[in-house]
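thought: fold this chain, then report.
action: predict
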Amino acid sequence: MNYEYSHPRKHNAQLDSLEEEMLLGLQICGELLVQSKDVMLGALAYQGWLEHGRCLVIVNLPQITEVSGAIELPMGLMLYNDPGVKMVGAEHLIKQYNPQTEGLLVVSHTNYNCCMACACIFAPSFPPHICYEEIMSRPSEFDL
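observation:
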């Protein structure tokens, strides 16, 4: 799968090593999400495209103190004209991705100290419209 990440270094931001580590962690989480939930992400991206036009699929990582069992990952959509698009550094990516073959994923993490996000263009294993049709035909098998 191909990924193209936005990165604050492209915007001349000065980051310390902790911030760099957090961004790398978000990028790795994004890759793992696409590998494990690509059909769901592709379907959500296509649903957003149908209902709103260009948009981002956003996943907010929870604060994890203990790893025990399945972790809930809240997923949602951010519209192309939302001010948050610029905050997550995805304004150039939202113009580049092809909604027929790709989606745009933002992985974010917010706690009391900071808010960080990383955006990437991803290509699910099937075209997004096929992912959407698959999920809509079998909704009971997916946690919508």
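thought: worth noting. The chain has one domain: 3-7+19-61+73-138.
final: tokens above.
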